Amino acid sequence: MSSESPFSRHLNTNYVPSGIELHHIRSLADERQKVVDALNVEIEALVKRRDEHAKFVKEHSALLSPVRRVPNDILSLIFLFCLPNDPFQASDTWSGDHPALIISAVSQRWRHLSLNTPLLWTVIDIQTPWLPNPQDYRWDNFMAYWGRQVQAILARTQLWISRSANCPLTVSFTGGLTLPEDTDMSEDPALTASQLMRSLVTALCDVSCRWKAVHLTVEVGVDAAVNEFFQIPPDRLLLLETLYINVLLTSPSVVNELNQGERLGEMTTGRGLIKAPHLRRLGVGYLRSSPLHLPIKWANFTELSLGPLAYYTNTSFPLSTLAMCVNLTRCSIHLQDPPPGGQLHAISTNLANANATTSVQAANRRAQSVGYAPSLAQHCQPPTGRGYTVPAADGH
User: Fold this and answer.
1) How far is Cα 179 from Cα 183, in angstroms, rounded to an integer?
2) Which end of the chain is more exposed for a tag (fewer CB within 10 A), N or C?
3) What is the pLDDT of residues 268-285, one digit of tens each?
4) How much is the pTM?
C-alpha cells in the first residue's frame, strides 16, 4: 500500500477541504486505521512470543548460577560472615534488615539452610521501648502501644532462642521498666507492663546456661523485673566468658532505699552473675558502688574495661585494680575526674601475653592539664617489649 496521498501538498497547512474532499479524506483515514489495528495485533503477538522466549532463557539461565552448586556447609559459613563482627556495636540488630531474616527469605533452599544453621541465630539484641512522662501523652494509649512492642520483642526472642538450638548465646539487653514514683504496680496498665517485662527477662534467664557473652544496661526503678538477671546462680553460668554491665537508677526512692548504692551493688553484682567461674572479660560502666567490693578474682581477667562511673566512689579503684590484674592482655580505662594527687600510687602490672596492649583513655579535658594521664603512664610500666599507649585527652 502506497504512502502517497492526494492531499500530501495540503498536510501541515491551513488548507480548508471542501465537502466532497472531507468524505474522501475520511475514507483514506479509515482505511489506514485498519492497517494500524492489524499491525498492533501482530506486535502484541510478537511481544508475547518474545516474552515467553525471554522467560524461558531467564529461568534456565538461573539453573546455571554457580551459587546453586555451592555445598551447604560452605554456604552456611558464608551466611555466618554476613553477621556483624562485633554484635555489641551493631545498630538495629533486630530490624527487618537483619542478615538472618534476609537470608531466610531468598529461596526455599536458603530458608531451610538458615533455619538449620543455629549459629546464625545466636545473637540476641534487645532494646526495650522508652516510656515517656505520663503528663506528655495519653498514658493508657501509650502503654498499650508499649505493650505491643514488648510482645513483639518477646516473640522474636523466643524465636531466636529456639532457632539457635543449643549453641552458646551472645545476649545484649538494654532497658527496663521506668515508671513514675507514685505508680500502683498492682493495677493495670502498670501490672500488665511489669508482667510483660518479667516474661522477657525470664525468657533470657531460662537459657543462662548457654550465655557466652552478656551486655547489660538495666534500669533499676520501682519495677524489679530486671533483678532476675542478677539472681542466677554461678553454676548456671559455666559458659559465660564476657560480661559488660551498666546499672542505671531511675527512681530517687530506690537510691535512698538502697543506701546510696551499697545495697544496690550487693543486689546486682554481689550475687551470682559476677561469680561466673569462667569469666575472663569484664566491662563496668555505671555501677554506683566500688567494683573493688565485688566477689571476683581479678587475676582471672584477661580483658578489662572501666567507665568513668565504674569507680566514682573510690578514685583509687582503677590503679588498685590494675595491681591485681596480673594476666591482662587488654585494658581500657576512661578517666573522667582525676583523683587527688595523694591517691596516685605506683603500681606495676605484669602482662603475661607478649603481644599485650594496654590503652588508658583520658576522657576529661582537665586530665592532660593536671598531668594525670602522664602520671598514670609513669606508674603503670608494662614489661619491656609490650605496647602501651596513653592517648591525649580529647574531651570525648
Assistant:
1) 7
2) N
3) 555 678 888 899 998 887
4) 0.69
